[in-house]
Amino acid sequence: MKIKPLYDRVLVKRKEPKEEIKGGIIIPDTAKEKPLEAEVIAVGDGRVNEDGKKFPLTVKVGDTVLIGKYAGTEIKIDDEEYLIMREDEILAIVEK
User: Fold this and answer.
1) What gap in Å lies between CA 80 and CA 52, rounded to an integer?
2) Neighbours of 64 (CB within 10 A)
3) 3-state DSSP: the chain helix, strand, coil percent, rounded to 5?
4) How far is the C-alpha of 90 from the C-alpha of 62, rounded, in Å?
5) What is the pLDDT of residues 34-80, one digit of tens each?
6) Which residues constitute the domain of residue 81?
7) What is the spatial distance between Cα 79 and Cα 95, in angstroms, rounded to a whole number?
8) Is the pTM of this model over 0.85?
9) Is the dihedral of CA 67, 35, 16, 3 positive or negative?
């Protein structure tokens, strides 16, 4: 299934953190914090102001971004979990 976000919305997928076991303690999935890093999967056409002028988005498909813990709306597509959020909810772009 292909998704195209509208306006200034962005579709992202959280990156799973590396599994680390310290001292033989395994933390269950329900107790783990949600990862704050995500990959941009799809972007909208841009924000439209009151005059009807369109401004392109700063992020692009494939970017790794930092997002807030409770940012966006969680959706499930083909058994995969994604977030749809506005571009202004993205905190930063991770540059490699």
Assistant:
1) 35
2) 16
3) 5, 40, 50
4) 14
5) 668 999 999 998 888 888 888 889 999 999 999 988 888 999 988 88
6) 9-16+25-93
7) 29
8) no
9) negative
